[in-house]
C-alpha cells in the first residue's frame, strides 16, 4: 500500500460515466525498409508480451476501487493480465486515417476498470498507408498527459539501427535509458499540488481558490489581461456531456508555425492560440453558435521561459482568443496583447502568488461534476489549449519511424472540447478531443486550422 | 416523452461502473456459396447503413441521463449516429474463435452512453474459419436478453433464397415480418413487474419480498425443495466485481442433450443444470474453491409447460446443483429431485403466489450494489442459469447460414457468473459471462461441460 495524495485521488473522485478521466496518446509508425505493417505489428506484440518485468506505475491500482471509498491508497498487483491490457485490432477497409480516429474516439469514451492497473495499449493495423498505430490509455490519477507522452517517447531511440525497442511498461527502461526529462505532473495536478504543498492544505485545494484570486487579481491592472473569476461567454463547448467521444488529429510542420511566430514577433504558443482561435471562430459560426464576446482559453505557461518555447506548465493563464474579431490581423494582435499581459502579470508575481493564480484560474473545474453546476453557473473559460514541447530529433522504435504522436486528452462536464498540441521531430501534432453528441463534425476543425494558418502566413510582418 | 416503468428504470438505477446492465448476443454466420467473408461483411454493413427508418425502441434514451435523476421518462431521438452505433472491426491474426471471444469480453465491460439510444452493433471479420460475427449490445432497460435474441432472429429467414435481410433496428421489420413470438420481459423484469402490477405496488418491488417469502415458504414442505431465503455457500462466484469481463461460448447438438434427457427421464432444463453442475464442480475444484455444500442456482421456469421444453420464464426457482456429490449418477438424481420438488411447489401455488415466490427468490439482487452488502450478507444463491428456447429451423441472413447464436448476459455484484443457453436450429448454444479478475480461466468451463455431457451419456438409463 502506498499513500495516494489528493492530487492523484481527485481524478478518481471527479470521474463519472460521462467524464472518464484517462489521458491517451496515439502514435503512428512507418515500418522500416522491407518490413510490412503486419510484420511490424507482430514484432511490437512479441516485444511487448516479452516485457514481463513491469514497472510499478503499471502495476498500481486504487486499494479500494468502489466509488464511495476515499481513495487514500494505491496497492500493487504482482503481475498484469496481458490479454486485458494489450489489445490488437485490424481496422475495417478502407483503412483511412478517419477509421483510425473513429476507433480511438469509441475507445476513449470507455471507462478503465479500477480493479486492475488502469491502462490499456492497443496495437492497430489496417491503415491503407501501411503505418501501424499505437493507442495508449492511462488513468490521469496514475500519470498526466504530458508525462504519458514522455514515457512513450522513452521507448523510442534516435538511432534507426537501435533494436532494443520494448514496451512502455518495461521495468528495464528506467535502468537502461535516461530518466524522463522535466517530469511534470500536468496542469491540474501541478498547479493544485504545488499550491497545496506550499500552503500545507492538501485537503482543501478548492477552498484555496477565493483567497488566491484576491492575491492574483490585486496585482493586475492591465486592461488586456483577462483575470480569473471573470465571466466567459456561454457556448456549445460549455454544457453537460455524454461519455461518447470524437477525436480528430493532424500535424503541421513546426517550421510553418515558427515562421509565422518570427514574422509576427510571437511565441509558438501564441501561434497555436491564433490557429485555434481562427478555427474555432469558423467552427462555431458554421453551427450558428459564435458568441458576440471572445472565447476565453486557459493555457499552461512556464514561469521562467522567455523564448519561443513556453516550456513546462507551472501555472495557467486565461487568454482572450479574440474570436469576436473577423480580421485575422486584428485577431492576432489582440491575442498577442492578451497573452503578453497575462504572462507579464504572472512574471510580476512571486512564485506562491503565481501558483495561486493558476489555482484560481482553474478552480471552477472542481465543481463541474456537481449536478446542475454546469447549467446554472457562469463559465469562467471556454476551453483548455495546451502546447507540450517534445524532442526535436527523429525517433524510431526498432527502426520504425515515429510519424505522428497525437495527445488524446479529457473533455469534462462544462468543457466539452480540449486541444492539446505536442511538437515532436519537427511536427506540431494537434489532438482535438470532444464530446461526441455535443460537438458534431469536430473533424472540420482540422481544415479550419489549415485555413487559419494559411491566413496567418499571408499577413504582413509585424 | 414516455413514462418509464420501474421494471425498466431499475436497470438504470442498479447500473454502476463495475456492473454494466446491458445484454448482448453473438451471432456467427457462414457466407453463402461463392461469397467471401469480406463480401458478407460489406453486404451487412451496406444493408444496415441503408436502414434509416429506425424502430422507436432503437431511438429511445433516458430523458434525464445523469445518474442522480429519477429516470421517470424515455425521450426519443429523431435519428441515430451510425458511426457510433454500427461498428466494424477485423480481428488480429490468427483469427481464432478465442480472439473473437476476447473482443466480446473487452467490449461487454464498457458502459453504454446514456445520452444516446443505448445499443451498439459490431460487425466482426477476420475469423480464420471464414465466418462473420455480429455482436449486439443493448441496455437491459430497453430490452431483456430473451427478447433481444428474438429480435435478432426476426431479421433472419428460414429461406436461404430470401434476400430481404436488414438491420435489427429497421422499422420495416415489424410491418414485414410476424411479431416476435412470446415476447417476454426476462426474468427480473417479468417477475418483479408482474408481481408489482398484481399488487399495485410498482414503486415498492423490494418491499414485497418478505411478504412474498412468507406466502411461498408456507406452501412448501418437500425436503428436496430449496426455498428462498435459505443460505447458499459462500464461493468465489459471490464477491464484489470489477467491470472487466470474460466471455466463453460453445454449442452442442441439442440431440445429445435430448438423448440424455430421454434416457434419464429429465427435462432439457435438467440436463443443462446437470452439465453446468459437473462443469462448475471441476472448475471450482481446480481453483481450490469447491464449497462443502452444494451450489444453488436460480433458474427461470414456466408455470405451464410440462414437457421437455420448460418454455418461457414466468417465475424463478432455486435448484441445488449437487456439486457436493462426486458421482455423476448421484448428482444427476439429486438435481432431478431438486428441480422436480421446486416445480411441484410452484405448480401448487396460485399465479400470484408463484410470482411472489419468484420475487422472493431473486429479491436480494436489489441490494447487491449497496456498498458492503455483498461482503457481509449471506448468499441466497450462487449463480443464475437460463435456458431460452428458440426456433428449431435453420435460419439465414441473405443466404448466409446462422451457425451459432450465443447469449452474453450480465454478471452482477455478488453474482460474478451467468450462464445462459439458447437452443436454435438444433444447437444448444452456451454463453458464459464472468467477471474477468475474479474468475480466471473461465473458458475451461467449456471443456468441463463436454466432459460432463460425455459422463451423463455413459450413465445407465433411469
Automatic annotation (TrEMBL), chains A, B:
One of its GO terms (molecular function) is diacylglycerol O-acyltransferase activity. Its EC number is 2.3.1.20. It is an enzyme of class 2 (transferase). One of its GO terms (cellular component) is plasma membrane. Pathway: Lipid metabolism; Glycerolipid metabolism; triacylglycerol biosynthesis. The keyword Nucleotide-binding does not apply. One of its GO terms (biological process) is response to nitric oxide. It catalyses: an acyl-CoA + a 1,2-diacyl-sn-glycerol = a triacyl-sn-glycerol + CoA. Residues 311-456 form the O-acyltransferase WSD1 C-terminal domain. The keyword Isomerase does not apply. Residues 8-272 form the O-acyltransferase WSD1-like N-terminal domain. Keywords: Acyltransferase, Glycerol metabolism, Lipid biosynthesis, Lipid metabolism, Transferase. It comes from the Bacteria. Belongs to the long-chain O-acyltransferase family. This is Diacylglycerol O-acyltransferase.
Amino acid at each position: 500500500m502506498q499513500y495516494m495524495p489528493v492530487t492523484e485521488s481527485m481524478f478518481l473522485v471527479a470521474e463519472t460515466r460521462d467524464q472518464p478521466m484517462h489521458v491517451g496518446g496515439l502514435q503512428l509508425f512507418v515500418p522500416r525498409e522491407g518490413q510490412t505493417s503486419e510484420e511490424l505489428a507482430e514484432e511490437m506484440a512479441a516485444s511487448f508480451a516479452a516485457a514481463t518485468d513491469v514497472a510499478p506505475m503499471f502495476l498500481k491500482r486504487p486499494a479500494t476501487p468502489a466509488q464511495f471509498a476515499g481513495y487514500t491508497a494505491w496497492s500493487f498487483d504482482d503481475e498484469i493480465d496481458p490479454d486485458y491490457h494489450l489489445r490488437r485490432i485490424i481496422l475495417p477497409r478502407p483503412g483511412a486515417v478517419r477509421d483510425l480516429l473513429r476507433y480511438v474516439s469509441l475507445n476513449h469514451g470507455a471507462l478503465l476498470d479500477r480493479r486492475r492497473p488502469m491502462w490499456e495499449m492497443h496495437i492497430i493495423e489496417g491503415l491503407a498507408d501501411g503505418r501501424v498505430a499505437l493507442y495508449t490509455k492511462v488513468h490521469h490519477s496514475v500519470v498526466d498527459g504530458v508525462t504519458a507522452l514522455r514515457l512513450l517517447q522513452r521507448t523510442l531511440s534516435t538511432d534507426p539501427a537501435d533494436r532494443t525497442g520494448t514496451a512502455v511498461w518495461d521495468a528495464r527502461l528506467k535502468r537502461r535509458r535516461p530518466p524522463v526529462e522535466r517530469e511534470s505532473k500536468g496542469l491540474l495536478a501541478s498547479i493544485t499540488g504545488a499550491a497545496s504543498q506550499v500552503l500545507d492544505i492538501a485537503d482543501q485545494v478548492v477552498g484555496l481558490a477565493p483567497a488566491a484570486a484576491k492575491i492574483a487579481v490585486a496585482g493586475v491592472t492591465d486592461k488586456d489581461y483577462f483575470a480569473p473569476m471573470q465571466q466567459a461567454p456561454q457556448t456549445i463547448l460549455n454544457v453537460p456531456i455524454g461519455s461518447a467521444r470524437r477525436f480528430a488529429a493532424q500535424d503541421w510542420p513546426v517550421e510553418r508555425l515558427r515562421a509565422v511566430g518570427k514574422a509576427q514577433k510571437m511565441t509558438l504558443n501564441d501561434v497555436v492560440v491564433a490557429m485555434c482561435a481562427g478555427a474555432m471562430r469558423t467552427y462555431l459560426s458554421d453551427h450558428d453558435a459564435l458568441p458576440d464576446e471572445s472565447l476565453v482559453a486557459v493555457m499552461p505557461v512556464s514561469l521562467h521561459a522567455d523564448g519561443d518555447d513556453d516550456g513546462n506548465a507551472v501555472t495557467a493563464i486565461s487568454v482572450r482568443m479574440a474570436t469576436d474579431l473577423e480580421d485575422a490581423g486584428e485577431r492576432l494582435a489582440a491575442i498577442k496583447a492578451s497573452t503578453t499581459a497575462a504572462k507579464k502579470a504572472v512574471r510580476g508575481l512571486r512564485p506562491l502568488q503565481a501558483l495561486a493564480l493558476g489555482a484560481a484560474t482553474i478552480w471552477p473545474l472542481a465543481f463541474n461534476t456537481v449536478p446542475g453546476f454546469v447549467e446554472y453557473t457562469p463559465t469562467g473559460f471556454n476551453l483548455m489549449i495546451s502546447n507540450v514541447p517534445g524532442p526535436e530529433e527523429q525517433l524510431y522504435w526498432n527502426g520504425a519511424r515515429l510519424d505522428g504522436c497525437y495527445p488524446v486528452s479529457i473533455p469534462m462536464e462544462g468543457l466539452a472540447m480540449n486541444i492539446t498540441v505536442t511538437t515532436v521531430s519537427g511536427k506540431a501534432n494537434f489532438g482535438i478531443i470532444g464530446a461526441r453528441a455535443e460537438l458534431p463534425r469536430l473533424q472540420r476543425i482540422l481544415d479550419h486550422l489549415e485555413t487559419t494558418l494559411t491566413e496567418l502566413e499571408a499577413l504582413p510582418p509585424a
